[in-house]
Design a protein that fits this description.
- The model is unreliable at 132-139 (pLDDT under 50).
- A hairpin with a 6-residue loop joins strand 1 (138-140) and strand 2.
- Strands 1-2 form a two-stranded antiparallel sheet.
- It is mainly α and 155 residues long.
- It has seven helices and two strands; from the N terminus they run αααααααββ.
Length: 155
């Protein structure tokens, strides 16, 4: 849950990447929830039947509608930034829906963008960590203040 939530938070920006990809993920989980809640389809497709999971489909429909609505009203020129509260909640909801529908092993496949974003940030942070020798020969990243190798820092 924490990894998916953090990945959604790192993916979020003013471009709507977190909302657009999350809408696709939630709709895929909604299809799994609908099939798992239907005795005939779950038997035919050899998917585990989960009684009373139909209520999750209603929540998924409302949640995906909210995500698509956010994208619709934040079309070009984008002016709304979702922020940490929205993106962390989106990631948590996706992970919890996957757990409810018993498809938690599909999280790396469904949330591949979040996984790649997590790996990208971890690689970046470990690759440019400041060394003990000080800031000579490095410059600060304009957005985050992390010292990067190569150029001299302006003082």
């Amino acid at each position: 849950i924490v990894a998916v939530s953090n990945g959604a938070n790192l993916t979020d920006g003013i471009d709507g990447l977190a909302a657009g990809s999350s809408a696709i993920m939630v709709l895929a989980l909604g299809i799994f929830a609908w099939v798992s809640g239907n005795l005939i389809f779950s038997d035919y497709l050899n998917i585990m039947y989960i009684p009373n999971v139909g209520e999750v489909v209603i929540f998924v429909a409302a949640f995906s509608g909210a995500l698509i609505g956010f994208l619709w009203f934040n079309a070009f020129p984008a002016t709304i930034f979702m922020g940490d509260t929205g993106s962390l909640t989106i990631g948590g909801v996706i992970a919890v829906i996957a757990l409810i529908v018993r498809k938690e092993l599909l999280i790396p496949l469904l949330c591949g963008i979040f996984l790649v974003e997590n790996l990208s940030v971890m690689t970046y942070q470990t690759g440019v960590s400041p060394r003990r020798s000080g800031a000579i020969g490095r410059h600060a990243c304009p957005g985050c203040g992390v010292l990067m190798p190569g150029k001299v820092q302006n003082e």
